[in-house]
Amino acid sequence: MATMKVNRTLECEGLACPLPVVRTKKAMEEMKTGEVLEIRATDSGSVADLQSWAKRTGQQYIGLKEENGVFRHYIRKSDPTETKEERKFPHTIYNEELRKKLSEGEALHIVDVREPAEFAFCRIPGAKSIPLGDLEERIYELDPSQDYVVVCRSGNRSDMACQLLMEKGFINVINAVQGMAVWTGEIEKDEVN
Amino acid sequence: MTAMGTQKVTAKELTTIILNKEDLFILDVRNESDFSDWKIEGISVDIINIPYFDLLDDIAPALDAIPADKPVVVVCAKEGSSIFVAEQLAEAGLNHVSYLEGGMKSWSEYLEPVKVADLSGGGELYQFVRIGKGCLSYMVLSNGEAALIDTSRMIDQYQRFMQKKGVELIHAIDTHLHADHISGGRALAQRYGAAYHLPPKDATEVTFEYEKLVEGRDITVGQETIKVQPIYTPGHTIGSTSFLIDNTYILTGDILFIDSIGRPDLAGLAEDWVGDLRDTLYSRYKVLSEELIVLPAHFGKVTELGIGGLVAGRLGTLYSENPGLNIEDESEFRRTVTENLPPQPNSYQEIRQVNMGKIAPNIEEQREMEIGPNRCAVHDK
């Protein structure tokens, strides 16, 4: 598997409990909201422990890849206010309608503005990945006259992305307001070894 | 890294405390899901779960929960996190706190030898209680020879016991192809050049040579003094075989337990084997003497542990008190053993493959497969 883009990588190979969780906690405290941490651990106990720790502390456990006895965990530092923030962008679509359009074969252009690690583990088939933080500099990859559906995990980052796109002269962008967190339609992910 | 004063307790010592029903408080610092799946149980044990990662900044939640008037043992998966927590508790001034050496890994592997009886021909019968997992194995010793039945994976512990007793293994026997634990029978037999016996109907896919268990063809331990007499009793698996020892003890494998009965679904043929299971429990065992002492291959609840940890029951008493032997209606019996069963043991399919010799995982992988409760009885919830 190609190396996934993350903000920081923590080497915990050879370390036993409690050290992987202790170091993860410390690293997350130093990181910014929205950043993704990769933790490489060899202790199989790290799997259930990091998932449980993330859940109890409100961090987003994105996924796990195992290769050659190394567990690679991906955790995104969550903003506690993220889910409560007021959404401003007026044009929205619910997952059910989006799913229906896709299943009817409508050729939609979907832009996924989550972090690469989130995108790698679960995405709508055919979606294009441009993390929110990269959107401005990669905006040339998109066509202002084209229609876009913008998606993220919970509708917040995509809301911001839609606003940015409107400012940049895009005519028809829609926020998938419910996000991947509750997406029940078809998904695609990177090959796992 | 252990601070001075942090005391440890071994799985053996903890077993003694539990079997003696001494007061004990356990702080289990594993994650919630591991704790809810499987934990240390005992009649006099109070246990709570606070994951160690909730105690990284502040030990107060643990301090608040720990009683002052009984010994406390901190437990985790392997021991690292429990040492971490126990050290902080010691620093906070508690001096009645220790940690379990080797954690739940050691707890799962420890075997407590419990003497069942002296046998009429001068031999002895021992039960090995794998208290952390609920598995029971048996050793018949006579005149320098030994036979082991339903051997656990940790064969070094049996070997040390046999050295101490001055006996050599000549037979390793499995009552059936196990699905909840990896059998040490074949490996130990190889070590001693002993015979490894299996019921042929359970062994159709095995990749190794073995001795076929045949009903009535007795196995002798110690110059014809002790007879181990196989009785074909299908139901948990199609090959399941019971053993009569010294005309007094019946080893029932995973067919009949003290407070429950075996489940017929672990080899994938529940519907086919329900009839066999009922026939074994309600007809084949019924004609045997009520005075026989039943020695099963598992226990489900700590309340089944008797004096010194012995798990045993009189057959006649089981016929009046075991709920699995008191289901008159055949269709109700069918429902009991095929519907609403407890979850299947972890990795039971892979464990069967190991016991057939089809896969050979390393020791760490074997441990991983066996983690958790055994759940071989229909009433294990």
Automatic annotation (TrEMBL), chain A:
Belongs to the sulfur carrier protein TusA family. Gene3D superfamilies: Rhodanese-like domain, TusA-like domain. InterPro entries: Rhodanese-like_dom, Rhodanese-like_dom_sf, TusA-like, TusA-like_sf. SUPFAM superfamilies: Rhodanese/Cell cycle control phosphatase, SirA-like. Residues 104-192 form the Rhodanese domain. It holds the Pfam family TusA. PROSITE patterns: RHODANESE_3, UPF0033. Keywords: Transferase. This is Rhodanese-related sulfurtransferase. GO terms for molecular function: transferase activity.
From TrEMBL, chain B:
Coiled coil: none annotated. Residues 20-116 form the Rhodanese domain. It holds the Pfam family Rhodanese. One of its GO terms (biological process) is glutathione metabolic process. One of its GO terms (molecular function) is sulfur dioxygenase activity. Keywords: Hydrolase. It catalyses: 3',5'-cyclic CMP + H2O = CMP + H(+); 3',5'-cyclic UMP + H2O = UMP + H(+). InterPro entries: Metallo-B-lactamas, Mito_Persulfide_Diox, POD-like_MBL-fold, Rhodanese-like_dom, Rhodanese-like_dom_sf, RibonucZ/Hydroxyglut_hydro. Counteracts the endogenous Pycsar antiviral defense system. Phosphodiesterase that enables metal-dependent hydrolysis of host cyclic nucleotide Pycsar defense signals such as cCMP and cUMP. PANTHER family: BETA-LACTAMASE DOMAIN PROTEIN, PERSULFIDE DIOXYGENASE ETHE1. This is Glyoxylase-like metal-dependent hydrolase (Beta-lactamase superfamily II). It comes from Paenibacillus taihuensis. The lineage of its organism: Bacteria, Bacillati, Bacillota, Bacilli, Bacillales.
